[in-house]
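Reply to dn_fold:

You asked what the input looked like. This is it:
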Amino acid sequence: MRCDYINPFVDSAQAVLKNFIPTAVEKGSFSLKDSFTAEGVSATVFLSGNVEGRVLLDMEPQLARKIAGRMNDMEFDHLDHLALDTICELTNIIIGKAVTLLNNKGFRFKTSPPCFFIGKKQLCGLESLCISLFTEWGEIKIQAAIKEKTKALDERRDHA
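and this is what came back:
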């Protein structure tokens, strides 16, 4: 896993979140995990192109409600479809900005639409790089499991 893949996602998340929440967004330290774990409300985007993998944004439900409320100029007592769609759209904005930055540097990534999960989910054996973003409202975790496609693998797929 290359840090030059995840840094644009972290930078993008900080920049986008600053537009939607009235609090500072501070980076934590990077950690390497041997699994891909979601614990609260999370949205995942799959990547394809020169790489394969996924990027996940994960946050506590109360933080998701606050962010969705701020983005929709309303309050959410629970996570309804509008709140979840809003978190997916936030993820789409963050990932889209990061992929654009990476494509401008010569990488070729494509993304899937975001899908959400609520609750604890774990994919073992999928090494990921994780970083937390801290705000006064709570913590947002970004996990990325991205690996470059090998040329031999691409050639095998082309001949299959």
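The mean pLDDT is 88.
Hope that clears it up.
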